[in-house]
User: Which sequence fits this backbone?
């Protein structure tokens, strides 16, 4: 045994007696060893020997539960506690518990704030991002300048004319599609074969869903130029 370990073992009874009196709660030898090993460097054998010695001297109490021994301070050495003292201690415990909860909540708030600050951009990173945004804005400004300087812009009048022509063509297309649908429905109503066979026999391309193909067939056969051409 080293000199330091021997000195610790010699002072073990005093250390353990003081510890049990301060804590005033039951401990096993393993508990005491685990709690004091790092602080005082006591070995387990020294702890067991010191506890047994203190129990034999009557300085602490020993209780046996099965194969385990429990040690605690002699309660006769402590003053009797009145009900008023117990109530005062209970009130103190409640106050301290509330204080602990308040401190824990403050710690959580500070941890959240620290996490937010840690995830935020640093000043150099922010300056770099500002420079990149300025460069991007300069590119957009130059692009907008080139667009405004172009001479092939579509005037509002031209745009309106294209819109009106599109509406006219769409209206005509819907009208011819409806006419084609009605025409083919009338033909197929008395036709003894399937729709597909009819288109094959008539040498026409098969229609798309909704007879859109039939509408295109009729449009291709119908003279263009509006309702005036049909009247003629």
Assistant:
């Amino acid at each position: 045994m080293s000199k330091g370990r021997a000195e610790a073992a010699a002072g073990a009874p005093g250390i353990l007696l003081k510890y049990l009196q301060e804590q005033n709660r039951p401990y096993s030898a393993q508990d005491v060893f685990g709690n004091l090993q790092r602080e005082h460097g006591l070995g387990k054998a020294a702890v067991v020997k010191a506890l047994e010695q203190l129990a034999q001297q009557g300085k602490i109490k020993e209780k046996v539960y099965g194969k385990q021994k429990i040690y605690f301070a002699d309660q006769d050495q402590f003053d009797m506690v009145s009900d008023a003292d117990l109530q005062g201690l209970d009130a103190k415990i409640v106050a301290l518990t509330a204080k602990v909860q308040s401190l824990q909540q403050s710690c959580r708030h500070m941890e959240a704030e620290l996490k937010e600050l840690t995830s935020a951009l640093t000043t150099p990173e922010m300056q770099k991002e500002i420079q990149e945004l300025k460069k991007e804005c300069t590119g957009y400004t130059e692009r907008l300048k080139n667009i405004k300087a172009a001479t092939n812009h579509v005037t509002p009048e031209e745009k309106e004319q294209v819109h009106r022509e599109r509406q006219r063509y769409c209206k005509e297309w819907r009208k011819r599609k409806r006419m084609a649908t009605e025409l083919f429905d009338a033909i197929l109503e008395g036709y003894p074969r399937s729709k597909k066979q009819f288109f094959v026999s008539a040498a026409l391309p098969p229609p798309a869903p909704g007879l859109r193909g039939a509408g295109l067939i009729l449009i291709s056969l119908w003279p263009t130029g509006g309702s005036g051409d049909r009247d003629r």
About this structure: Residues 210-215, 221-232 have pLDDT under 50 and may be disordered.
